[in-house]
Amino acid sequence: MTMGRTRRDFLRTTSHTAAVLAAASLGQVHAAGNEKSGPLKIALIGCGGIMNTHVKTLLQMPKEATVTWLCDVDPQNTKEKLDRLNRSSGAKPRVTQHAEDIFNDSTVDACVIATPNHWHAPLAIAAMRAGKDVYLEKPASHCFTEGPLLIETAEKYGRVVQHGTQMRSSPVYDQAAKVLADGILGEIKFARAWSAEVRPASILVPDSTPPKGVDYDRWLGPAPVHAFNVNRFHKKWRLYPEYANGDIGDDGVHELDLGAWGLGMKGDVLPTRVTSHGGHLFPPYATEFFDDMTVTYEFPTGQQLIYEMHSVTPYGLFGVDNGNVFYGTEGYMLFSRRGFFNVYLGPKGTPGPKEDKAIRGQRGYLEHMRDFLQAIRQRTPTRAPLEVGHRSSALVHLANIAAMTRGALEFDTNAGKFRDCDEANTMLTKNYRAPYGV
After folding, report:
1. Are residues 300 and 422 in the same domain?
2. What gap in Å lies between CA 192 and CA 309, rounded to an integer?
3. Number of helices and strands (H, E) in the chain?
4. Per residue in 116-166, pLDDT tens?
5. Is 134 helix (H, G, I), strand (E, B) or coil?
6. In this structure, is residue 227 part of a structural domain?
């Protein structure tokens, strides 16, 4: 296998290679040139934290999209977004606690889904079945088996999907991709990714009652029934596996996505071996995830991706809290989704290309949403299609499972399961509480 040539071919078409089949499927749904006129009608589902960024982004594109629905189980969240949209654009979207109201509205073109992770796949699948295109926040799935189901649904219904790994749309990413494609680093042998951000410790508190107006049963959705607890609600739900995937599934999925990209991996390539270890360096507090992890992924190409997660220190590698390094035979690239990259060549680390000063710090949020809207109109693949989103999310799931079981596991990429470890294979999927599920 000629890695250099394969790598260049991949990186020159970095945002589309993994979605060739999706393009064919999308083309069957809308004839070429049959673009929708006027602003696209968008529904926002899950109106908490990251949705603030999406609202800000959409408000910058009034001719391209308008928000017609807001959905959240907490009326306070929808009120905040409604007030902001009304002040900024005069928009008065409809409000609901039930996503089914949106799916039943034939005028809605697309949904932006930014709920807790356990709701990502059920809502995205329901939206696609209802004929809506989907901007799905990361990680795409809460468990491994949801990924292939998402891909299958998108292909069956010819839907456009953008995964919320926004750096793939940054102009910084584009410039770095060109440098990688030019081959000045030689063959990329391995990559290192990391995230180092201190998370405030949450002490255990007794169960209580949900805030007034919150539909808590619907918030739980497919998750097991559990009494309301503030540590399991807004923002802090990330502490529990019933709803989240740990820090590796929060900031980590961004870095893993970029690490695999830097290696030149196509979107459907999964590792064949995962070695993962985690620890609890914080004093005992309200979480069931590791706050420190070290993971090594070995791919069929022989390349490796090493990931480090540290929630007890803000000090990452190379002075960057979140980043990647792509090591080649002729040099290496430091790349950060904080919006920059540096190249160092030869044994003396001679400085090479870097991002243009004019684009430094750009993280791709606006461009990612614009790419999604354009893909809807043109029925073309997005920069972060589901094939890529599934692989990035799968790296999260495989690492968590390995750390919770044997520490080192072989993965059969054709069968989509671990070799000779029944315990690990049971963790690739989950049970869904009726009537919620996929």
Report:
1. yes
2. 11
3. 13, 16
4. 999 999 999 999 999 999 999 999 999 999 999 999 999 999 999 999 999
5. strand
6. no
